[in-house]
Design a protein that fits this description.
Elements: E1 8-9, E2 17-18, E3 32-36, H1 42-58, E4 61-65, H2 71-78, E5 82-85, H3 92-97, E6 102-105, E7 115-119, H4 121-133, E8 139-142, H5 149-164, E9 168-169, H6 187-196, E10 201-204, H7 208-220, E11 229-234, H8 238-243, E12 249-252, H9 255-270, E13 280-282, E14 286-288, H10 301-312, H11 320-327, H12 331-342, H13 346-364, H14 369-375, H15 381-392, H16 396-412
Parallel strand pairs: 3-4, 3-5, 5-6, 6-7, 7-13, 8-9, 8-10, 10-11, 11-12
Antiparallel strand pairs: 1-2, 12-14
Amino acid sequence: MLQIATPSRDSRSPSRVSVSQVRYAPAIDAPRVLAILNLSTAWSRGVLQGFMACAHERRWTVLHYPPPVDVAALVQRFAPAAALIGPDSGGLALACAALVPVVSVALDLSSEGIASVCPEEDRIGVLALEHLRATGLRNVSTFQLDASQFGIARERAFVARARQAGASVAPGWGSEDAAPRRTGEDADAIVEWLRSLPKPCGIFTCADHWARIVARYIRLAGLRVPEELALIGVDNDVVECELLEPPLSSVMVPWQEVGRSAAKLVERILQGQQLSSRPVLTAPVGVVGRRSSELLAIEDALVAKALRWIRERAHQRLNVPMVARAVGGGRKRLERRFRRALDRTVQGEIRRARVEVAKGLLQTTRASMAEIAKRSGFTNASLLNVAFRREVGVPPGVYRRLVQNTLAGANDS
């Protein structure tokens, strides 16, 4: 294996890694892979954790450098067989691709002929909208600090789904629909924008670290979370989410799985195989709800009462007639008003509430599927599996593995 000293910083260019003092010994039959990835965020650390787990199994030599670096010098000195490059590296992926096969992670460069592994951005936007809509919110908006590829894709999917669901979409900060389009951290303008939003309103911030910026200006604007503005981010960066007050709801992305998928592409490169021209997409796990979106913004008192009753008793074996009797409305009347307020049935809400209970148990316990089914109101594990797949998109066992791997990686970092 290569013996590598800690990369030094070139005194002439403090921001650039120097390779002139790196000492190494040639490895025998160990493929070398260059990884250029900034580890300042939980998602990037998750990617590298997943990638390195596969690299260790395959006995690759991984040379990790944070950007910016002199790609040509690294390639000349180490002669890597492939490179993994993250989105914070500017144009390094394109420069590197002229010298060595590249896998781009979290940035789709497939149109440039570069193999890419990315989260399923459209699904992230849809999950964020569905989470906010479950609270009864009819007003939504978005926040992007800059015109990043991931932010644009997430916002487009969020807005499209919101309009399809009949929600009112206020022009977001950094939104393509805003006239003029405003980006960056303009304090006075952001405060003015937040005050102009219809209340209550749900804001999809497209990333957890952007939610921190929004929360700062919500306080400066004298507004309240979640009573006036509910927030949801992306990545479920535990540090970012728990440091906010109230803690931030977030779409969980299995970044370790993204790293493993990237490793599979590198393995194919090393084997001389042809790669697909389409990006490899990894689906988000689901939404981890916290107090930043914990509200019921439902004007219909009967529906609001039914929702509270269902959620307080979701672990019990409920049915629609029981709900109707409990809230004092006939079944047909309740169903009609439920559809009008939430665009779903009473039975659909019962199922969704049960799955939310199951998700919490899967995140925090090692209970068997039979026990989780019982504690979340399902008669057996098979019915839990069917409902969970319908609501979340993956079986409960897969959800548990993805969530616990993600949380373990966050705690390790």
